[in-house]
Write a structure and sequence with these properties.
The protein folds into 2 domains: about 170 residues, 2-Layer Sandwich (Nucleotidyltransferase, domain 5), CATH 3.30.420.10; about 60 residues, no CATH class. The chain has 10 helices and 5 strands; from the N terminus they run E-E-H-H-E-H-H-E-H-E-H-H-H-H-H. It has a 5-stranded mixed β-sheet with strand order 3-2-1-4-5.
């Protein structure tokens, strides 16, 4: 099988750990030729790139015809469900969509996914079911964005899309820093926003334990079920 006849798919997420905003799971569909062009422009894992350079690769990849599918996961859902379950489901959606976009004449599919602990065999089964009829090579490893360029590219897309959302959100609610619980700016913003007895904005995750000390009435232990809020979050309006 010729190497250049194999389509690459990379999948990664951004925003799993922060207190503020959506988690975004991103999948890219990229040919070896496209990948080589980006590699020659020093494509590498997103953590080793500045935000400006990540955005450059984001724009460049779109110009080169890279296909991207992204799933946005609202904080409401992350407060109620196991994140590994949620991410596994998102990957299934992404693979099903990418299957509909793949060239039927490709010689096979290489799928690379950043590790979700304990889910490799389940996601492998999903991948092989989605791409039934194609030879599939499946790899899921920790730190896959540092080893495999398709995952590095997926990570860049997820991070840039989340960053763009947060830029819009900050214009409405002020500077909350990175949104990570350990960020002093995030903690400062929480203290300023918090009113005892109030409910948090919908873009804040209520099950993150840092809220216990800073905004105790905002904190809720993670629980399953319940109806999703009918009203939109501020991020929904910011994306318009």
């Amino acid at each position: 099988m010729k190497e250049n006849s194999l389509t690459r798919i990379g999948i990664d997420e951004a925003g799993r750990g922060p207190l503020i905003g959506d988690m975004i799971v991103s999948g890219v569909l990229v040919s070896p030729d496209m990948l080589e062009k980006l590699k020659n422009r020093s494509l590498k894992e997103s953590k080793r790139l500045s935000p400006k350079k990540r955005y450059w690769f984001y724009k460049q990849a779109l110009r080169e015809g890279v296909v991207v599918v992204a799933v946005y996961v609202h904080p409401w859902r992350m407060d109620r469900e196991n994140l590994n379950d949620v991410e596994e489901e998102c990957i299934g959606w992404i693979l099903r969509i990418l299957y509909t976009l793949i060239d039927p004449d490709v010689g096979g599919v290489h799928i690379y996914v950043d590790e979700i602990k304990g889910r490799a065999s389940r996601i492998r089964d999903i991948a092989e079911t989605c791409f039934k009829g194609f030879p599939v090579e499946f790899v899921m490893e920790p730190g896959a964005d540092a080893r495999y360029l398709p995952v590095a590219l997926a990570s860049i897309f997820a991070k840039v899309m989340r960053d763009l959302d947060l830029v819009k959100l900050r214009k409405h609610v002020g500077n909350f820093g990175s949104g990570y619980p350990a960020d002093p700016l995030t903690k400062k913003w929480l203290k300023e926003m918090y009113t005892p007895g109030s409910d948090p904005p919908l873009y804040v995750r209520r099950s993150w334990r840092v809220l216990k000390n800073i905004a105790p009435t905002w904190y809720r232990e993670k629980r399953r079920g319940g109806k999703a809020p009918k009203h939109k979050s501020l991020l929904d309006y910011a994306r318009r």
